Amino acid sequence: MRVLNAQPIRRQVVVAATLLLLPLIGAVIWSADRTIREREIEVQDQAKSIAVTSVAYLNQYLAGLDSLASALSRHPDVGALRESECTRLFAAVLTEQPLILNLMLTGTDGTIRGSALPIPPDRRGPVDMPYVSQVAATGQPVVSEFSRGRVTGKPTVVFGYPVRNESGAIVGALGLGVNLERLQTVFAAIPLPAGSVITLTDRSSRILARSRESERFIGTIISATPTEPKDMPRTLTSTGMDGIVRIFGNAVVERGPWLLSVGIPKSVVTTQVTPLWRRNLVILGVGIFGIFGLVLWLAHQLARQLDRLRSGVRRISEGDLSPPARARVPNLELAQLQDAFITMANNLRDTRDALDRQIEQERKMSETLQSLQRQVVRQERLTAVGLLVSGVAHELNNPLQAILGTLELLERHPGLTPDVLDEVAFVKTQSGRAREIIRNLSRFSSQQTGAPTLVDLRDVIAEIVQLRRRNLDSASITLDVEATSTRRVYANFTEIEQVILNFVINAQQSLESSERGKGRIVIRVCDVGKRVRLEVLDDGPGVSPEDEPKLFQPFFTTKPVGKGTGLGLSVSYGIIDSYGGSIGYRQNEWGGAMFFFELPAASPDTLPPQSEHDRSAVLH
């Protein structure tokens, strides 16, 4: 061992591989021998099991013969020895029993009193069958020895049964001759390995039935020194009459008594063991190559692990602090060295990550501070807008009240024509709308909302069309309405009118800025699931992609100075949001703009929804 310790690791591994190879070869040889013995025992058990099963099949068939004989012997015509009736009866039974050669009824004196097969005249004399006298003497069923049928001349064994008259006296014997050439069909359903044979012999070692080449061997005596069936060993290995070495399993048929043997070729063992031998040889070959491969692998692993650690040190020196992946190593020292190196790299990386996280936290704190500053500025703007709106609403409300009062006086003047009255009503309606807008502005400045009611968007659109038709016609802009929804929504009529009017005015201004001379605006109303959707489309230039995210922000406008305040869409956003709806923009199929909003559809028997959003959220 000391000499081995002083050698290089490659030589150590080669010696270890050689020492491991010797017991491996011995194990393979022992396994092959053990496998053969185990397979022989398995085949013996299989042969015994099949023999017992075959005896059960044969006993079952014989029990069926006993039942048939019992039924026939009780027949009145049989008990009365009526020859013609018995002949017809036996012939009918014979057609349904393919394994029976003949059914014959004889008197106690041997006179034939009925036969399933016609008997030649020269053979109709009294029969000299031992079973007749045995049945008459004992009154019990008997089984004859091997013989040739009196009528058919075929090998058979006769089962004799006593026949009694009405008073119970034995008047004859019923003989059922079994066709031994076809008796092997009883075992046809039993699965057997290839080349196996089932043999039935009597106490004289004469073959009564055989599953292979039955016509050739039936009646042949296989042993010059017969042995009683009960004295035969349950398993044995011998060479059969056909020259094939088989492993036999034996079982006794008590009715004969007969011996039923099941022989499985010994070559089955070789056939079963051959794949195992191949497997063992493959294992041995793989083991040899594996051991020498292990030698080379261990040497390669040692060099590779040292190279990995060296390359890891080089990466860390260059600034890459990622630890190397943990790999399997051939010995404990290399494993400890690898663990220590990975721990060092992890500690260095954790320290750098902690510094990166600290820098990131400081950056986020700076961004949060800037966001809070922007919110403070926005809140100050909201306060200024609230004060401005409150003052404007107050200043405009008084002139509107005077206008409305004057219009009411004009309506009472008796000399006005119907056309003038229509114009006065129109002005009065628009003044009322202006007054409602002022009230909404007052509520906006005081963060109050109007009570919603059931609103049909088609009515709101009709008001807007009446209001903007002349202005649009003068600008050569066509206004179309496509309303397919008949459902209503819960909202404030004037607020919804304000939103749609903002959409229409924006579309008109977009078309006028394009200077094309003509344009088109379409207002659509349709159902989208449980919501009502309104869209305002135009064929103008649309909105540039960089401006889309800012459309609904307060004070944002793309119009020239003096043309817009940047509050129209933001106020519209707040109105729709307060009713639980959604508002948005996208480019339409013409390439122009499409502003839309969706509101929950309502039915008259439902309560109006409560506003959940503060109107001041418009500017946040």
Labels describing this entry:
620 residues, alpha+beta, elongated, single chain, 50% helix, Heat Shock Protein 90, six-stranded antiparallel sheet, Beta-Lactamase, disordered C terminus, seven-stranded mixed sheet
Structural commentary:
It is elongated, with a radius of gyration of 57 Å. It has twelve helices and 18 strands. 50% of the residues lie in helices and 19% in strands. By secondary structure, it is of the alpha+beta class. Strand 7 and strand 8 form a beta hairpin. Among the domains are: 106 residues, PAS domain (Beta-Lactamase, 2-Layer Sandwich), CATH 3.30.450; 169 residues, Histidine kinase-like ATPase, C-terminal domain (Heat Shock Protein 90, 2-Layer Sandwich). Strands 12, 13, 14, 15, 16, 17 and 18 form a seven-stranded mixed beta sheet that branches. Strands 1, 2, 3, 4, 5 and 6 form a six-stranded antiparallel beta sheet that branches. The chain has a five-stranded antiparallel beta sheet with strand order 8-7-11-10-9. The two termini are 86 Å apart.
